[in-house]
Amino acid sequence: MVRDERLDEPDAEAVARAAREARGRAVADVTPISKGINAIYRIRFAGGEVAVLKAATFNTTAELRPEPYLLRALADATTLPVPEVLATAEDGGPLGVFHFLLEHREGRQIRDLDGLSWADRERLVRAVGRHLARLHEFRLAEAEGPVAASLDADDCGPLRMTDPEAGATPAFTADGGDSWGEVFASLADHPASLVEQVQCGDDPGRFADLVPDIVAAFDGVADAITEPETPAVLHRDFHLDNFVLGSDEEGGLDVRTVLDFGDPYVGDYRLDLAFAEDATIRVQLPTEDRAADLRHLLRRSYARERGIDPDEIVNGNYPYYLLVQRSRWMSVALDWKSCDDPAAVERAYRSFVRERLAEIE
């Protein structure tokens, strides 16, 4: 659910007023950040402090409201590295729309994996496994602070919040009350539809022969998906664009900050792990053996942090989760022109899809 029509992005003067009201200090400059689907700005205050303002111009207030409250709860209850929430404007202030201010985290971001050494790729997937596990170990119902949680133990769906009316304690809720299978079927519908329309980069017919089998695999998926043992808070976008990178104590690559909790869900932790696996271990690798090494490393790192058996991660749901994420890449996300060997990438994609389809059958 998003707005029926995207709102115009606020101008720099209005953003400066909003930041000034939120922090009570003069603003030196405002710079739009071309990242994400909502309006985001880098704010530099006169004293040198740097912050980030995010406004609900694409998502509705109900969709975006949980993010700052969730970030505060995660900062209080976990060691997950998330930015500090500096202010939240429920009334919209000078922008007339819900927005919040976060601290700006210094570091570097990368858009692809090609420039990383093998050692840094290993460090990256280990860090991703650890941090994702820390998120999934978090329990909203046990979180302390000014926000309540009106969730049953088996609730699944989009994570939302009650409107914090005057004097009322805001509470997290799971919108919809559907089974996890129904929730996932809804999530899977969009990428599956994109593949059905065969929107595949520079060659509209590139994967046309796979489309009937992909669409058929998701037919009736709500009944095929098993319910999670314990629903977890899901990020749903655990990929390179949402990591601020830095160095660990030995000087190796590390994930310094995890960003963008703008559309959290409650559901099966394996969905997040499958999405992260596909985003941080692409098919553009020298050999499938090396890709398999990274997958095992990611799963072991995740399992070790949570204290679970890595063999329990891949169940009957997992091929569906991997397939829906790869469908998204196949349909719109992959820049084929930037591939060194498009034919090799296409072969790898085809092999991946066929393997997942065989597992689903």
TrEMBL record:
Pfam families for this protein = APH
Leader sequence residues:
none
Domain Aminoglycoside phosphotransferase, by residue range, is 30-306
Q: Which residues form a coiled coil?
A: none
InterPro entries documented for this protein:
AGP_Transferase, Aminoglycoside_PTrfase, Kinase-like_dom_sf
Q: PANTHER family of this UniProt entry?
A: AMINOGLYCOSIDE PHOSPHOTRANSFERASE-RELATED-RELATED
Protein name as catalogued: Phosphotransferase
- Which species is the source of this protein? Halorussus gelatinilyticus
